[in-house]
Amino acid sequence: MSLKNMQSIIKKYKRIIAWGAGRYFEQYHYLLNGQISYVVDCNINLHGRDKNGIRIYPPSKLEQERHKEECLLVVFNAHFSEIVDDAKKIGDFDIVDIKALELLYKRTDQEEADAFKDFGSKSPVLVCAGMHALWDINGSWKFIDAQNKILHSNNLDTLEVVPLPYYQKGDCGHIFIAISRNGRFLGTFLLEEFVKSQIKVNGLVIHSLYYSHEILDVLLKSVEVEHNILYYVHDYYCICINRFLYVNETSCLDSTGELRCQTCIYRQQKELISAFHRRLFTTYGIKLIVPSWDTEKRIKKVFNNNEVRVIPHISYQEKQQQRLKYTQKIAYIGSACGIKGWNDYKTIVKKMKDKYKFYCLGRCGKNDYLEGVTYVDVNIKGENGCLNMIDSLKKYEIDIVYLGSVCPETFCYAYYEAYEAGCFVMTKETSGNTCDQVKKHGNGLVFKSVDDMVKWLDDVEEAEDMVLQMNKTITDVQPDETFLEQLWG
Questions:
Q1: Which of 108, 340, 390, 400 has its CA 20 to 30 A from that of 34?
Q2: Residue 373: enclosing H or E segment and its boundaries?
Q3: Is residue 24's pLDDT more than 90?
Q4: Are 180 and 157 in contact (CB under 8 A)?
């Protein structure tokens, strides 16, 4: 399939089915206006409802499709790889990500297309990242954006490559890539077109390729790298297909924090994905960069013969700051989803709504709204009429931030934003680096369960005393620049 035919991809199918009725659907459904037959979504509260005039069903509806080869499944969700796995269990559907489809629709100007080949005598740094890491506004994007700016400030060009997988009959038969130069979009290409250009790069930095890891094999074989290759561990996809170490609403860690792989139904897939990465890391001498000591201990157990360096995403200075006011306000910050502890937050709100004022600062689908919670839109950049997280926490005078992730965080920008805003942090033992940092800095409490959180909050006077005694904050927060030493050294 040539790239020029991609704009007619939709016309090949008799039925277009959307998977996901949340934020992505609201944002991108216009691309397929009038062409979607129906929507499937795992949220039982949506089943039987209409969205933009289109009926929503459970994923089991797909089993009724007798001619699956005539259907294109378009994923309107950031968890593309997980949905692909679920869809494969139902049948061999052709599958494409809506954000990939959007980019594949874009026209590639030949003059722009040639721009990635001509860097003169100065080789660029190749930055390879998953689509949702580089272009979705989240923690990974925040880190990559800051790192690219550091490269540019050091008079280095960047060539950003993002895989756009298109699955046919359940297999990733064609890999398209979107290419940008110094953040300026150039166009979309077949991967083989890119590698034939025999690109020579100064260094290679890899981020979050959690559903496009096969691109690494091709790139590493064909791209000449003058210095070093860095692989950033933003999640645990390099050791398990369940990249958050959480599956079927159960943590992959036992009570001691060890992986429970021996009894896991995904054990074979875990061994395959870790063996794939181990081979690449060893063959090409790739340096693994992890943002926390908690992450390092898990990565080293799987890749004990590879170089692993702990480099936090940011540096900062600690500062004493007396808290003069207590408003009994608690905020969930970030995207409202199960793995971040949204379900436990619902429990806290239900039981404590008469004693505290509750907020949600960040993304939350209207179908997940809770009575008694004030919702505030937050923008990482502080754009579009929204404040950034730190300014929002200060404006609404939040006392306590809830960070109840049920899976181990590799870093968690939200924790440091809460710390910089001078907030007291409630977290769980399951939260990885968040748990470690709260214990290290003493700017909050770590709980075993949501019931323990509720019990502590129920004693309003004790909670007030502890929050007022937490007189710490951080200042001079800067993105890490020491990665340059790893890239060149």
A1: 108
A2: strand 373-376
A3: no
A4: no
